[in-house]
Design a protein that fits this description.
about 45% helix, 3 strands, Putative cytoplasmic protein, alpha+beta
Length: about 160
């Protein structure tokens, strides 16, 4: 991917959102070959943004590649990390996917499931923009915190 095809710009205000910052940290952490070394943050997170044009280029039916699966796991790790920071309780992400790209993502706090997302066609997984990523993630985190507060006994067990 060349810099000419990037859709995320370095001046995007959502690059500074908590979820995007944590996601970039997670993506850099799983980069065992130092591919992202020296890359700007916008370039690291760019593949997660699937504009309508990018989505059109991906076939309707297909199996996810290892990199896509790693990005999905990094995203749910980031969600869990932010839930943990805001609640003060350990949050554990669980992502189960078949080789065909179907499965489920859970985030548990104690015995409480605070995020439960069914995943389909993950070879086409992504967000329309960093704004979309931030808004959906903030809503998910807020819902998780509400569940933790409501069912604190299960969360602290």
């Amino acid at each position: 991917m060349t810099t000419a095809t990037l859709v995320v710009q370095e001046n995007d205000p959502y690059l500074n959102s908590d979820i995007v910052q944590d996601l970039i940290k997670q993506l850099r952490a799983i980069d065992t070959y130092d591919t992202y070394d020296g890359w700007p943050s916008a370039r690291v997170v760019d593949p997660i943004v699937l504009t309508k044009e990018r989505k059109r280029e991906i076939p309707i039916i297909g199996d996810p590649d290892g990199l896509t699966i790693a990005r999905i796991k990094a995203y749910y790790n980031s969600l869990a990390s932010l839930i943990e920071k805001r609640s003060g309780l350990m949050a554990a992400p669980i992502v189960h996917l078949t080789h065909e790209g179907f499965g489920r993502a859970l985030i548990m706090v104690g015995k409480l499931v605070v995020v439960d997302k069914i995943l389909r066609d993950v070879h086409r997984w992504g967000f329309a923009s960093l704004e979309d990523l931030s808004e959906k993630s903030d809503k998910t985190i807020s819902n998780a915190i509400e569940l933790i507060e409501k069912y604190n006994n299960a969360a602290t067990d």
